[in-house]
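During the first year of the project, the team set up a workflow for recording each protein of interest as an amino acid sequence followed immediately by a discrete structure-token representation. This format lets reviewers and collaborators read both layers of information side by side without switching files. As required by the reporting guidelines, we include two representative entries from the current panel. The first entry is reproduced here exactly as it appears in our internal archive.
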Amino acid sequence: MRALCLGLSLLAAGPAFATGSLECQGIDDNAVVASLLLTRSEPPVLMPLRAEIVTVDTTWSTVGVEGAKLVDIVHTYADERSAIVEFADPATSEILISLRLARGVAADSYAEAGVLVIVGVGAYAVACIDG
């Protein structure tokens, strides 16, 4: 399976938000890694401002990293039980990458697991813990 790294940066928009991190690792392949910096609030809010997704063959970025394919963040959703972030080709609006997580929340602790799908590349099962 291809090695994968996902970095997703999110920033706080006000005093009700807290910055945290989420570390995800492939369930079937330990070389699959996703590392996210994100904001959380009550009720849960997901506000991505920057993302970079890297596989062995390809890099995608929302900020025009040299050599990367440009993608836009086109859909985000989060509640107490799930989170979704989708990335699209800016020229066609076709969804290229989707990160879908199931969430468990207790006090200030989060646990998340799900799937990262990259169209034409593969689907990666990921398990995540709050960092």
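The second entry, processed by the same pipeline in the following quarter, appears below.
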Amino acid sequence: MQPLVITKQSELEKVEALVSKEDFKQFLLPVIRKMQEDVTSCTQVQRRVYMQNRSKLWKVDSLLIQIKTHVKASEESTLDHL
């Protein structure tokens, strides 16, 4: 087994190894924009589905009120005939 040899890097080599902020931003900004678009799209879809479901519930509620009104009217007319 050979001994591990540790050498010091010069300051210049250390600086070159760092990633510049511009490169990092150029990489991340498109990703962040795409994520924002995806979140916006999901939010719009959820809002649309919520409104569709709410609309359906209003229709069902309206139908139930109509049925209840018809049943009540039928009961009253039946009692009037007795």
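For the second entry, the following points were noted during internal review. The chain is about 85% helix and 0% strand. Residues 3 and 20 are 35 Å apart (CA to CA). Both points are flagged for discussion at the upcoming steering committee meeting.
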